[in-house]
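Quick question, first post here. What does this chain look like in 3D?
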Amino acid sequence: MKHTLIVLSLVPGFFQFCSSQSRHVQVGDPVPLFSLHDQHDSLFHISDYLGKKVLVIFFYPKDESLVCTKEACSFRDSYAEFTQAGALVIGINSGTVESHKKFQENHHLPFILLSDPGDQVLKMFGVKGKFFFSGRETFVVDKKGKIAFSFDSFTNGPKHEQETLRFVKMMHSE
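> Answer (accepted):
Ran it through. Tokens below.
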């Protein structure tokens, strides 16, 4: 049996390309700029909100799944507190605009849900998937457009809202 050995290091820039695709944004990094369609099929440009609002961006694997629904409903239940602290809440996953619209309607979600087909924005943030699912991670972007906070817990969706709200309230009181 013949075996083929592929030497990837001979491909110029291969490792740099791979590492840049998986680089996780860190606290202090500028937020990646992106535009995606929301649950109303309107184009959302993150640049329109930089400098105006604190942004709470939570990546979640799937509309209507058990943990994701608990997470989204936690953000819903604290939405007024986020708003009072000057934050805009945004949920992102690879679901379709139609799926997001149904998810929003089923659970009375008052915040923006963005459709990220192919997980391009998820990759820009370096969010890692687990167990065949896309990742679950939350980021807070300050008014300067920098990542101010991140929280990662794959199995505890509601903890994202709790930890993020605590941080946003602390930012707001400073």
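Residues 8 and 14 are 7 Å apart (CA to CA).
Confidence is low (pLDDT under 50) at residues 1-21.
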